Amino acid sequence: MQKKHYPISIFILDVSNSSTNNMGDELTVYLDEMVKGINIWTKEMVPTQVKHRAGDEIIFIGYGYSTAYILAFFISRIWKYRDHKPYFGLAFGDIDRKLEEVDIEKWIHPLIKQARYANDLLKQESNRPLFKFELDQFYTSPFLYNQFRNEFESLFNTILYLQYGLIKEQTNIQELVCSAYLILQQQKAVGTLLGKTPPTISSHFKKGKSVEILGSFHEIINILNSLQEKAYQGIDIKSEIVTNSIRNHLKKNIKTLLDQKQ
Fold first, then answer.
1. 4 in Cβ contact with 95 (< 8 Å)
2. Is 199 exposed, middle or buried (0-12, 13-18, 19+ CB in 10 A)?
């Protein structure tokens, strides 16, 4: 009898410049708060596991090929410390046991090795983007198109490099508008939140390339969803549920989240 498999995704979050300016203790507290937030966002969504480990690292595992990337993107947009940005090594694939049975502290799996390898590659880059997928090392999926893994990896990471280039050019107000729109989904609501007129919000949205940044976010999700649907017909792990759950929770204290960005 063939073993049942489950689609999952992983991120390993690390923090830039975490040892500078005596930020260690403050970042440790912040990462603990972030883990609590992730648990709240995902509680009614799909089973997930998340841990704060090794000082400035968070590891996340959840069902669904796109789940880790969705969470990572939202975290990057509400992240408090501009001088200590997070970066995420990402992987996705399949496991032959339920995630609920995994002890994240002891679990050894090639997908975790892939996410860590992606994170380590980011750590070595001077112009470090926020996200990197690793699909072509350590692991062969029973469902993914393994002969095209290198091409998929190149596609994802090229989009992410271009996305990061646009994010890096955003001014503080353009960043706030983009992040608020990601959560609220209406420019009028963003204007009310930030105390700006609709034309002003529209101008910041366009000049900050928010259409392109958010468009690339959605396009990567669409590709991951398509891969998952081809591999797991009938399995109901919807990225819309993940995204809406995160948005609904972030809306409750969005002003505080955006006001505290340093």
1. no
2. exposed
CATH assignment at residue 130: 3.30.70.270
Is residue 179, in this structure, part of any structural domain at all?
no
pTM: 0.93
pLDDT for 88 beyond 50:
yes
Total domains in the chain come to 1
- Expressed as residue numbers, the domain containing 67 is 6-170+209-259
Domain assignment of residue 199, yes or no: no
Query: Which residues are paired to 216 by β-bridges?
Result: none
Give domain status of residue 182, yes or no.
no
Does the pLDDT of residue 159 top 60, yes or no? yes
Question: For the chain, how many residues are written?
Answer: 262
Q: 197 exposed, middle or buried (CB, 10 Å; 0-12, 13-18, 19+)? A: exposed
Q: Which of 23, 63, 66, 27 is nearest to 47 (CA)?
A: 63
82 three-state secondary structure: coil
CA distance 244 to 222: 15
In a domain, 203, yes or no: no
Give strand pairing partners of 52: 58
Cα atoms in the Cβ-side hemisphere of radius 13 Å centred on 239: 23
